[in-house]
């Protein structure tokens, strides 16, 4: 069985006791980022976005849902990568004006996700992470 997860403070691998199979997408991660984007769209459309701090808090919430699944050891970090790639490809089909939503999602992932930041650090030293990170970077290039 492959090891899963990252501990938030120590970033050490743990074996998940909750699953015997590997996974691909994290529904929690996907739902978190899409829900955050939906709230962002409503705030923006109704002029409710009062400060950059509000957007940053919402961005943090949007990625925390998926990050915590990795920290809990029930998903691989690359499951979040797959979920973010899927989200970035779905956003243009979900939202009327996708450009600001894509920018918000990119900000949430690249600036607020602990999993993303740790993967970026490890990508240069770990060959297995090169392709998933390159695919995510391509999806994030808006």
How many runs of DSSP E, i.e. beta strands?
A: 0
Q: Could you tell me the strand content as a percent range? A: under 5%
Rg from Cα: 15 Å
Span from first to last CA?
37 Å
Biggest sheet overview: none
Mean pLDDT: 88
Query: Low-confidence parts, pLDDT < 50 over ≥5 residues?
Result: none
| SS-based class | mainly alpha
Number of continuous helical runs = 6
The helicity comes to 55-70%
What's this model, at a glance?
The protein is mainly α and 142 residues long.
What are the main properties of this structure?
single chain, 142 residues, mainly alpha, 0% strand
Care to describe what's here?
It contains six helices and no strands. The chain is an all-alpha fold. The longest helix is centred in the middle third of the chain and has 20 residues, at 52-71. The chain starts with 26 loop residues before the first helix and ends with a helix. Helix 1 (27-45) crosses helix 4.
